[in-house]
Amino acid sequence: MNKMITPLVAFGAGMVAYNLVQRNNLMSERQMKRMMRKVKRAMS
User: Fold this and answer.
1) Cβ contacts of residue 7 below 8 Å, gap of 6+?
2) What is the phi/psi pair of residue 25, to 5°?
3) Can you tell me the distance from the alpha carbon of 19 to that of 10, in angstroms, rounded to the nearest whole number?
4) How far is CA 28 from the centre of its chain?
């Protein structure tokens, strides 16, 4: 059960960060893609 919850929490936190960044335009598109790749790798 715990193995399922942890990636979901990480994914949720990633989505919140992604939305904040998009609203504030703090990061370039390239950095954003790199971060999403790290998130996906952490989840798998």
Assistant:
1) 42, 43
2) 55, 45
3) 14
4) 15
pLDDT score for 36:
80
Q: Which residue has the tokens 């960060």?
A: 17
Q: Are the beta carbons of 39 and 12 closer than 8 angstroms? A: no
pLDDT tens-digit map of 1-44: 677 888 888 888 888 888 887 777 665 777 778 878 887 888 77
Query: CA dist 15 to 2, 8, 30, Å?
Result: 20, 10, 17
Closest listed residue to residue 16, CA positions, set 42, 37, 39, 44: 39
User: Which residue has tokens 């790798």?
Assistant: 41
